[in-house]
Amino acid sequence: MAKGRVTINETLCKGCELCVSVCPKHVLQLSTTKINASGYNPAEVVNDDCIACTSCAKMCPDCAITVEKLD
Amino acid sequence: MAKVLMKGNEAVGKAAIEAGCRYFFGYPITPQSEVPEYLSSELPKVGGVFVQAESEVAAINMVYGAAGAGARVLTSSSSPGIALKQEGIGYISNAGLPAVIINMMRGGPGLGTIQPGQADYNMTVKGGSNGDYHDIVLAPASVQEAVDMVMEAFDLADYYGTPVIVLADGLIGQMMEPVEFNYVCKKELAPKTWALTGKGDGEKHMIQNLVIEPDECEAWNKSHFEKYAVIEANEQAWEEYLMEDAEYAFVSYGTSSRIVRSAISYLREAGYKVGMIRPKTLWPFPAKAFEKLDKKIKKYMDVEMSMGQMVQDVAYACNDKNKIEFYGRTGGVVPAVDEIVEFGKRVMGGDK
Amino acid sequence: MAVVFQKTKALTDVKLHYCPGCAHGIVHRLVAEALEELGEDKNAIAAVPVGCSVFANKYFNFDAIQCAHGRAPATATGIKRVHPDKIVLTYQGDGDLASIGTAEIIHAAARGEKITTIFINNGIYGMTGGQMAPTTLPGMKATTAKAGRDPKINGNPIRVCEMLSTLDGPVYIERVSVSTPAQVTQAKRAIKKALEIQRQGLGFTFVEVVSTCPTNWGLTPVKSMEFVREKMIPYYPLGVYKDITAEEGK
């Protein structure tokens, strides 16, 4: 059961992978199917294990990540 | 206010305070060091700020910040120091900010000499920084005129949104003359709604210097040149001295014009119909003075304390380079009256 | 359900022009968050540099001025002297601050100007394309030191925090990094503290951020963060170099 929810703004994402590298629960990876308007593979959520630690958002240079804590 | 006897460098400092300037950022250099010395003690008395910067480069960039923050701000220096300030002057011009810069010129190039000179005309009038721009340049010929021009400079700077350079020399800076501080602003000045003050509850303010798209940069520059056209139309200033019946005209500004004035009295006594056009603004150059005289004057005799810099603008203004004669001394040498008299006689044709 | 992380209002919605993974975006955000949390974003004026962050004024949602290369501390001095009640900060890279602007930063610090400088040290000239910076590590390759910086030929790097901490003017100097979430948290704490000290009018404050340049380092963003930890931080140790508020508290 997810304790948190990560939302990626795919338009802003530049696919730098810093969020992916710091997530302790391996919630994120770069999309292998999507390409955004700037030509990047955006990060996407791949499982329900988010704990709302905000590590991904702290490392995001493009303010593309919003994190919510679920009750 | 009664006249007081003041040294030029101190008088321009007082003029700035009288004009409402409360911020000075500068660096010592001969022959203008009395400007920062005077303001270091006088500005704090009126709640102002004096900062001795680490260099002229830093000083002009402090001026950039203070001007951007909406203040009336002054810096002063002498030729090599003004050369160092050129980068910052270009930035201030590009941002369209008001600032006043005093140059008490000395002989150059390089370290040159500490004696008075007028060889910064090209650097100042033609633009010593990179890119297309102009600054208003005022050229006083006395301590009183330096006072009046410094005070007017703040109004012109605020009115047009541009640096104004008061281009005097070491002689005007170092000599004492009686002065009074009676200048009254004739312009209606708008509030500085663009200044950096923290956005509060309004829109943020940005002072921009990089316009990276070429089309936008060209439009940006052209908007400056629309402003310059208005300045050229409205702000040309000059003095005509004994020009009513003149067949020959000296052209000279600042300190050299004072010596020319003395030479003219000797030449008039000797029967020569000679007068002088004395530009008081160097940019905009007073071309209007020449338009109305063009056919009547046989020769224009340009005298400068340089190897000939303004002379090109005189040639352009009178539209006939064959009418131009030049006499100059350089490297800090101030010409003597008899040199100018001899030059005049040589041009105008022997003894009368 | 509660939002625990979202973009600060002290940044605009303009999309950042930086390369993927460039840490400028992280530090921009930290500066903006710190100002917003202090309630000072409406009261702030930034002096931005020449270099990659020349457009920081477009991203900061507060007043800003674009400065000449290296001169931001002088320009900020002019602003602060006119508006002593505003929060005035400079945001500068290593070429800007530690090379062409060395005189301006040292003297602003020595005067104790009541401004805050955020110094981004990534050991390279980014905007001009990877030339050697004053902070390029020995052995690190640059387009003007192709075989790697050789101190015998190219001279040695400058450690700015250590140098400035010898002066009496600064009241707070800290070096941080943003290569891990924990470092990001510490970097924000340092930036916020520097701005808070400025608000108290105590003196010059300085935060160096050991940062990255994936593009000109020729590394991925993730590898760049590893390079920061393995190579940059050993040469530029993190920590507090000066803090008179701590000394006074003792």
UniProtKB/TrEMBL annotation, chain A:
Checking Pfam families in the record gives: Fer4_7
**What superkingdom heads the lineage?**
Bacteria
Q: What is its EC number?
A: 1.6.5.11
**Per the database record, which ranges form the 4Fe-4S ferredoxin-type domain?**
4-33, 41-70
Q: Which InterPro entries match?
A: 4Fe4S_Fe-S-bd (IPR017896), 4Fe4S_Fe_S_CS (IPR017900)
Q: What class of enzyme is it?
A: oxidoreductase
Record's keyword annotation contains Iron-sulfur: yes
Gene Ontology MF annotations: iron-sulfur cluster binding; metal ion binding; oxidoreductase activity
Give the keywords, sorted: Iron, Iron-sulfur, Metal-binding, Oxidoreductase
Protein name, UniProt field: NAD(P)H-quinone oxidoreductase subunit I, chloroplastic
Gene giving rise to this polypeptide: ndhI_4
TrEMBL record, chain B:
- Name of the protein described by the UniProt record: NADH-dependent phenylglyoxylate dehydrogenase subunit alpha
Q: Which InterPro entries match?
A: 2-oxoacid_oxidoreductase, PFOR_II, Pyrv_Fd/Flavodoxin_OxRdtase_N, THDP-binding, Transketo_C/PFOR_II
What gene, per UniProt, encodes this protein? padG_2
Gene3D superfamilies assigned: 3.40.50.920, 3.40.50.970
Pyruvate flavodoxin/ferredoxin oxidoreductase pyrimidine binding domain boundaries = 14-199
Q: Which domain of life is it from?
A: Bacteria
- Under Enzyme Commission nomenclature, its number is 1.2.1.58
**Stored CDD domains:** TPP_PYR_PFOR_IOR-alpha_like
What stretches pass through the bilayer? none
| GO MF entries | phenylglyoxylate dehydrogenase (acylating) activity
**Top-level EC class:** oxidoreductase
Q: Which residues form the Pyruvate:ferredoxin oxidoreductase core domain?
A: 246-340
UniProtKB/TrEMBL annotation, chain C:
Highest taxon above the source species: Bacteria
Recite the UniProt keywords alphabetically. Answer: Oxidoreductase
- Single Gene Ontology MF annotation: oxidoreductase activity, acting on the aldehyde or oxo group of donors, iron-sulfur protein as acceptor
According to the entry, every stretch annotated as the Thiamine pyrophosphate enzyme TPP-binding domain falls at: 51-209
Q: Name one GO biological process term.
A: cellular respiration
InterPro entries per UniProt: 2-oxoacid:Fd_oxidoreductase, THDP-binding, TPP_enzyme_TPP-bd
Name the EC number(s): 1.2.-.-
Q: What is this protein called?
A: 2-oxoglutarate oxidoreductase subunit KorB
Lineage runs:
Bacteria, Bacillati, Bacillota, Clostridia, Lachnospirales
